[in-house]
Sequence to fold (328 residues):
Amino acid sequence: MLNRLIPDPFLAALVAVVTLAALLPASGQAAEIVDIVANFAIGLLFFLQGARLARETVIGGITHWRLHLLVLACTFVLFPLLGLALHAAAPTLLSENLWMGMLFLCALPSTVQSSIAFTSIGKGNVPAAICSATASNLLGIFLTPVLVGLLLSAKGDAGVDLSAVGKIVLQLLVPFIAGQILRPKIGAFVLKHKKILSMTDRSSILLVVYSAFSAAVVNGIWQRVALSDLVTLLVLDCVLLAFVLLVTTLAARTLGFNKPDEVTIVFCGSKKTLASGVPMANVLFPGAAAGIVILPLMIFHQIQLMVCAWLAQRYGKVIEEKEPITAP
Fold:
C-alpha cells in the first residue's frame, strides 16, 4: 500500500529538477558549466554501462534472431509509423515543437536497465532481453538521428543535421566501448558497487534535464506550453503505449513465441529510453528547443514504468502458475 502511495523517487527527482530549473534556471556562464558537467556525466554513464555488461551473457542471447528482429521492428518501424499517423490525424493538436518531441520519442531506442528488470520480474527470457535491449541502444545511436530527420521531413520540417550522428557516437558509443575494453579490470568493482554507481546514472540524466529545461525557461517555455498541452501529451503517450503493448503481445502470440519470449518482446519492444534520449535531444535540438522536445519523452517514461511494473508482476504470476517447477 505504501509503495502505491509513495511516488517513484526518480519521478520525484525529475519533478524537483524541473521545478528548480523553473525557479532558478542556469544562464550565461553557469549554463555553460552545467552543460560541460552534464556531458561528462553522460559519458561516464555509458562507460559504466559498458563495464557492467557481460559479453558472455549477451552472446548467449544473440542466436534468438527472430525475437530480436521483432523487437527492433517494433522500436524502429512501428513506433515511427504510429508517430506519423498521430500527427497526420491531428496536426494542430500540439505545437510544432511538441510534435517534434512526439516524433523524436518514436525514433528512440529501447531502454536497457528497466527492460531487463521487468523481463526478469515477469519471468521472461532475460539473456535475450539483455541482447535485444543492448542492440537497440547501440543501433539507436546511428538510427535515431536518421529516423528523426526522415520523420521531420515527412512532417514538412527541415529535419536535423545528420552530422549530429558523429557527436552522439562520441558522447555515447565511445565511452561504452571504452567500458567494454576495460571490463576485465574494473567489471568486478562496478558490479560490486552497482547500487552506489547507479546514482551516477540517474544523476547524469537529472543534470541534462536541468540543463535543457534551464535553457527552455530562459527562452520562455512556460509561455509556450499550456496545461492543456501537458494533458494532451499525457493522453497521446497513453494511447501510444497501449497500442504498442497490444501489438507486441499479439505479434508474439501469432508468431508462436513461448511465454518467456513474449514477456521479453513486450517489454523490450514497447519501451523508450530516457537515458539515451535526453543527451540525443541536446545534440539534435540544440538550445531551448531541447527542453520542449523532451517533454513527451519524460511523460512517456513515467507512464511506461508504472504500466510495465504492474504488467511484469502479472506476467510473473501467470508463468509461475503454469510452470511452478521451472520458473526462476
User: Anything to note?
Assistant: Residues 30-320 form a domain with the Na+/H+ antiporter like fold fold (CATH 1.20.1530.20).
